[in-house]
Amino acid sequence: MNITEAKKQIMGKLELDDVNSGIFYGEWAKIEGRDTMVSYSPIDGSQIAEVTMATEGDYQKVLDRAQESFKIWRDIPAPQRGLLVKEIGNELRKYKTALGKLVSIEVGKTIVEGEGEVQEMIDIADFALGLSRQFYGLTIVSERPHHRMYEQWLPLGSIGVITSFNFPCAVWAWNAMIAAAAGDICVWKPSSKGALIAIATTKIVNRVVEKFGYPPLFFLVVGRGREVGEWMANDPALPLISFTGSIPTGKRIAENVAKRLGRTILELGGNNAAIVTDQTDMTIALRGVAFGALATAGQRCTTTRRLILHQAIYDEFLTKLKNIFEKVKIGNPLEPGVLVGPLIDEKAVENHLNAIQQAIHQGGKLIFGGEKANIPGLENGHYVIPALIEANPDMDIVKEETFAPILYVMKYRTIEEALEIHNNVPQGLSSAIFTNNLRDEEYFLSPSGSDCGIANANTSTAGAEIGGAFGGEKETGGGRESGSDAWKNYMRRQTVTINYGKDLPLSQGVKFDID
């Protein structure tokens, strides 16, 4: 299927036009007289549509309306809020194919990955429905007679969500669905490279909100990243900013939010490694490493970027992995059988090529791939051949995250050495070990093992489920989204003390008598 045919199929279904408003403040802002940005498909470089960008006045209008909505939404009982989120999930199910195809067209994911992203939104809506009856607080023993203490969790306010192109709608849903169940309002600044996906998603979810008679809950502000991001980071009307993106940008946002004593959820760089021991299931390990390195053309924050191989299986495993890399189908992600689609833009291709040159200059050995891929009929697309590079763990480039399909391969002798190599990078998002040795597995999961927020045994660094808290340590930012108790980020804890006695005893034995 070519991109022109695919575009014709989905634009009408998703109510998208050649020029679309990128500002939703309870209604869609008019497009006349506004600056626009163009959305291009990385598949073939063609223009998909234009999107209008927000002014600072538009942004303020969004925030004012969001504050109005919060005053109403916070008082709706949480189980009722959960029922609305459930209906949003049901509505997204109707558009799974069309919205998934738009993900493929606008950011270059394969059809399976595009629909999988929409499924993540559906799954997190189901999860948030259950949470809406489980915002539990503790009952606490009081040291004072006739007193009762407990804690409760209350809505936080309007939250800002800034997302990246590589998961253009799923990460928004991780935040927005749980925030909605918690009683919050969501203001979304999507990546400019995924603006059409954000517009289509915002239209779908707000139709459900309107149908049930609630005020607008999900707002949208499309604009230049640095400009809109700065407005949000410095705005005390947004008590929480959830940011997914690069480490330098995350640090700048964190600094600005901290200056006003706000909260952040930071999901920044990943430089994830897989350790493969000499006692491994070779088939599982090869599949896990290949998926981790190649999925989304290496443009996941959880992509496997470093492979740490035991010396006893090094040659055999690397030969088999190279064979997989040689056979993997690269091309139009709308076509069946394609596993590796395009990089997001030409700048990403340049970064890929530059990183390989740096690796070679620093002593690495290119053993496969790395060059541009010329796909017939898609000469204006942004394709590369995934690279395998034998590397030294102390090379500077190995400690950086390059958002491209480059896998650095290193050798180890002992599990202690493997973990030393593994942890010797600034990032700490996802990690994996492939082994049938229980001692190695447990060491990997021990306090002396992986220093990442996510640790996997016999499965890939990529492909996290929504039920677990997602996030990492060190320069990854320390944030947690999605499952487990990540919902606490979107609420404020309040400790309550009730005196039901006839006296006023004080804590710590303090006496304060008034005649």
Task: Write a structural description.
The chain has a 7-stranded mixed beta sheet with strand order 14-15-16-13-12-18-19, with helices on both faces. Strands 2-9-8-7-10-11 form a 6-stranded mixed beta sheet, with helices on both faces. Strand 10, helix 9 and strand 11 form a beta-alpha-beta unit. It starts with a helix and ends in a 16-residue tail after the last strand. It has 515 residues and is of the alpha/beta class. Helices cover 37% and strands 20% of the residues.
Task: Give a brief description.
This protein is an alpha/beta fold and 515 residues long. It has 14 helices and 23 strands.
Shape: globular
Number of helices, where a helix is a run of at least 4 consecutive DSSP H or I residues: 14
- Largest beta sheet, briefly? 7 strands, mixed
Helix content: 25-40%
List the main descriptive attributes of the protein structure presented here.
515 residues, alpha/beta, seven-stranded mixed sheet, six-stranded mixed sheet, 14 helices, globular
Secondary-structure map with pairings?
Elements: H1 3-11, E1 19-20, E2 23-24, E3 36-40, E4 47-52, H2 56-73, H3 78-94, H4 96-107, H5 111-131, E5 139-140, E6 147-155, E7 158-162, H6 170-182, E8 185-189, H7 195-211, E9 218-221, H8 225-233, E10 240-244, H9 247-259, E11 263-267, E12 272-276, H10 282-294, E13 304-310, H11 314-327, H12 346-361, E14 365-368, E15 387-390, E16 406-412, H13 415-423, E17 427-428, E18 430-434, H14 438-444, E19 454-457, E20 469-470, E21 473-474, E22 481-482, E23 491-499
